[in-house]
Specification:
The structure holds two protein chains of two kinds. Chain A is mainly α. In chain A, 45% of the residues lie in helices and 0% in strands. The chains are: A mainly alpha, B mainly alpha.
Chain lengths: 78, 169
């Protein structure tokens, strides 16, 4: 058995998984409630924190959802 | 010389030029992929992984001790070979696939191997042992053993007296 569980040499998935720092990803900020028609819309709030055109970020978001569910399942909440 | 033992077959690779034996575009991975971005690829895999027949097979494989990383790699490689997505998209979605596989393993209460830990951690490398052995051998060859023995003979032997009135050191 060679490097990190793969039977066929280097497995890029291991490096990818380890580098996915999803715990420290910038969180989506809660939009502040503001009244008035001319109040700034929270549309750009997410795009300021994260670059969603980056596919790795989109995968990380999906991964975060799965991990949260997994953690909840482990704790018996799900 | 220390021979490193590997369990991998040495002649199991493709023959040089084998990729050129079919017409260009005849293979599924040589035509444009069915899913062109990671969202589509993830949707495809996550919906497939949610099917019961897949889950049953996955649990069997996990119980056999196959690491999660190897399973995820095999899944995405088969997708590439079927022409579902490019290899880039496949590698990009691998962490999410691994997370999903681990979640399914947890749900089935299976003790699985993640494949994230280095199995060779803490094991002394064969190459290091060979290096130390060769250094030791060289040092032995450089040392003149006769000279070393003669030097030792010249040293006066300490006389030990065992009487009660013997001088203490």
């Amino acid at each position: 058995m060679s490097m990190y569980g793969s039977t066929r040499g280097y497995n890029p998935g291991v490096t990818m998984y380890k580098n996915m720092d999803i715990e420290n990803m910038p969180k989506q900020q809660e939009p502040q409630k503001t009244g008035g028609l001319l109040a700034r819309k929270p549309m750009d709030m997410m795009s300021k924190n994260m670059n969603y055109s980056n596919p790795a970020i989109r995968v990380a978001k999906q991964m975060e959802v799965i991990r949260n569910f997994r953690n909840r399942m482990k704790n018996g909440d799900a | 010389m220390v021979m490193l033992e590997t369990n991998e077959p040495m002649f199991d690779g493709p023959i040089p030029g084998e990729s050129l034996t079919a017409e260009l575009g005849a293979r599924p991975w040589q035509s444009p992929p069915q899913y062109s971005n990671v969202d589509e690829v993830l949707d495809y895999y996550l919906s497939r992984m949610s099917q019961e027949d897949f889950m049953v097979q996955l649990v069997d494989v996990l119980e056999m001790g196959v690491p999660v990383s190897a399973i995820a790699n095999s899944i995405q490689l088969s997708g590439v070979m079927q022409g579902l997505h490019t290899i880039d998209s496949g590698i990009l979605v691998m962490p999410a696939l691994m997370e999903m596989i681990m979640m399914l393993g947890d749900a089935a209460d299976v003790k699985y191997e993640t494949g994230l830990d280095n199995p060779n951690k803490g094991v002394t490398r064969d190459t290091l042992l060979a290096k130390v052995a060769s250094q030791y051998k060289k040092k032995l060859e450089d040392t003149d053993i006769k000279e070393a023995v003669e030097e030792k003979d010249d040293e006066p032997e300490e006389q030990y007296s065992s009487g009660l009135m013997a001088r203490r050191k």
